[in-house]
Design goal:
The chain has 592 residues and is α+β, with helices and mostly antiparallel strands. It has 17 helices and 13 strands.
């Protein structure tokens, strides 16, 4: 007869050393990766490390009634949170306070300055046709002749602004002629009256619908725009901040922007033809031809049609009226010229570096805020209070851990060494993984996360207790230690998996339905639950299998925690053979 095949459990039992070697190698690799990454401690949240707290106050734009409402505030919170997290700043807190305030808490050690710049940026994006452009300083008196400044693009070979369409057409950067011997005010008036560029009464708005005239008295509106343009000083920060205040998308506008040489220029712009809602996505990339950083935008279906329509008009105009200005929050970030009809996509180029290009792509990707915000206060949050709470929490965790250790030693004796070694392995893995997750996904440890780690001590200890009690049950039935370990493991494994699955499910639900710091608790609880399964399967069970072969445990030493007498084990069951032949011996006279 063929010899019976060895069961899989026997094979696994005979090679527990390989499993232990695997998890120890994994621990060494993870620890080495932690030291090589340069991060030896987990990133801390704002409550433990301190940081910056920014208070923003919402305000309505001119012409908007009841714009500051709960819906718009919640939308703004969502957009600001995505912007900040898009910079790699996690554990940030964005929440409303009252009816018109938003509080943004940014942990220390992250991109605080960059995040502060973006949280209140409205990111209102418009594509407006250029009517005229001039140098950024105020215009001298009419008696002094002056010339309009050069266009956004220079003919000196510097980095130029352009728009592309993936092969459908390309807008070339052409020099913008100057209007010599013509005062700027006259140039504005002539441009608005020429009819060659869109005017408020003849232009579709950014939504694609015809809009009424900006004013019932066009001449008065033109004179006011001319005066505003003439007196504007773009080198004055206060003047730049107020120049577009109260301007509607369907109105002509005056705006400031820097050219490729970094010099301020001022523009008269027509009504907006395309807005930020028509942008599908934006991405910062390097232009392969120039090697400069640019922002590529892809339009939606409706936005592509609008962009095609405006570029078709502009391609037939003379400079500078063949340019369109990309206006972000009232500032002209680029003003490329157009020589053919474009659609589908556009490229914003200029004096970008990697950071500024990524910042612009970030705000464009996540959309414009529905409200304007004014920065009310910026305060520095210290970690003193959080440090005191952390100290108290660590003391509570240490007391809890000490009680668990005492219980294990008193009740399980020698088996407590296996439990303590498993707890140590779990603690090392938890610390190393939390440290690595900081630079990897931006995980930051806060007070609720510390609480989750403390709770995990009980979950891990519970798994050991289940396994040990199953082994003891088998010994009580009269079996020796090695068979008891292998018979107890399938039953204990099933119970441990069900228990950990429930804990992980609770952590996952809590992470999904909550926000802010509570997510830190849920994340840590879920992480430690997964590590509990890993440690029990790859460390506790193989170690128990190896120690079951040692005389100290196999012979049931009183201090092993597996003493059969102490456990009240039954005597070994002995089988009796049934007689197959007639009985031999004296016959009982009664039976005869």
């Amino acid at each position: 007869m063929a010899a019976p095949k060895k069961g899989r459990s026997h094979g696994a039992q005979s090679r527990p050393g390989r499993v232990l070697a695997f998890i120890l190698i994994a621990m060494v690799a993870l620890t080495g990766g932690m030291f090589l990454s340069g991060h030896k401690t987990p990133r801390l949240g704002i409550d433990l490390a301190g940081g910056t707290s920014i208070t923003l106050k919402a305000k309505s734009e001119p012409g908007q009634k009841n714009a500051v409402n709960q819906t718009n505030m919640n939308t703004a919170v969502s957009i600001i949170e995505r912007r900040v997290n898009g910079l790699g700043v996690t554990e940030s807190e964005v929440q409303t306070q009252g009816s018109d305030n938003i509080i943004v808490n940014i942990p220390k050690g992250t991109n605080e300055a960059q995040a502060r710049q973006q949280v209140g940026t409205t990111a209102q994006l418009y594509f407006r046709p250029v009517i005229t452009v001039a140098a950024g300083q105020p215009t001298p008196k009419p008696s002094a002749s002056s010339s309009s400044g050069t266009g956004k693009d220079k003919a000196t070979g510097n980095a130029t602004d352009k728009a592309t369409d993936g092969g459908k057409g390309k807008a070339s950067a052409t020099p913008t002629p100057t209007s010599s011997a013509t005062p700027q005010g006259r140039a504005v008036t002539d441009a608005l009256k020429a009819g060659s560029s869109p005017t408020p009464s003849a232009t579709a708005s950014a939504s694609g619908k015809p809009t009424p005239a900006a004013s019932p008295t066009p001449d008065a509106a033109t004179a006011a725009l001319q005066k505003k343009f003439t007196e504007l000083d773009c080198t004055d920060k206060a003047a730049r901040a107020t120049v577009t205040a109260g301007v509607r998308p369907q109105d002509n506008a005056v705006a400031c922007g820097k050219n490729s040489a970094g010099q301020w220029e001022k523009y008269v712009l027509g009504p907006a033809e395309v807005n930020g809602k028509d942008v599908d996505k934006a991405q910062a990339t390097i232009n392969q031809q120039t090697g400069a950083w640019v922002v590529n935008m892809d339009f939606t279906g409706a936005g592509s049609k609008k962009f095609s329509k405006i570029t078709s008009k502009l391609s037939q105009q003379q400079p500078p009226m063949n340019q369109f200005a990309i206006v972000l929050d009232g500032d002209v970030v680029s003003a490329p010229s157009v020589s053919s009809t474009l659609s589908g996509s556009a490229e914003i180029s200029g004096s970008f570096n990697q950071q500024s290009a990524q910042d612009l792509a970030n705000v464009l990707s996540y959309g414009a805020l529905p409200l304007s915000f004014q920065e009310q206060s910026v305060t520095t949050v210290t970690a003193a209070l959080g440090g005191e709470q952390l100290h108290a929490g660590l003391i509570a965790g240490a007391i809890g851990l000490l009680l668990v250790v005492i219980y294990l030693v008193v009740y399980y004796r020698g088996l407590s060494l296996i439990a303590l070694a498993s707890l140590l392995v779990s603690a090392i893995l938890t610390y190393v993984i939390m440290t690595l997750l900081g630079p990897a996904i931006g995980f930051a440890l806060n007070l609720p996360a510390v609480c989750g780690a403390i709770v995990a001590i009980g979950i891990t200890a519970d798994s050991f207790i289940v396994f040990f009690e199953r082994i003891r049950d088998e010994i009580r039935e009269g079996r020796s230690l090695r068979p008891s370990v292998e018979r107890a493991w399938p039953r204990a494994r099933r119970t441990i998996l069900v228990s950990d699955f429930v804990s992980f499910l609770a952590a996952a639900v809590l992470f999904i339905v909550t926000v802010g710091k509570v997510q830190g608790f849920a994340f840590t609880l879920g992480l430690t639950t997964v590590l509990d399964v890993v440690v029990v399967f790859l460390f506790t069970k193989p170690l128990m299998t190896i120690l079951a072969r040692k005389k100290f445990f196999a012979n049931g030493h009183p201090w092993s925690g597996l003493d059969p007498k102490r456990l009240g084990a039954k005597p070994p069951l002995r089988r009796t053979r049934r007689a197959t032949g007639p009985a031999v011996g004296p016959v009982d006279p009664k039976e005869a």
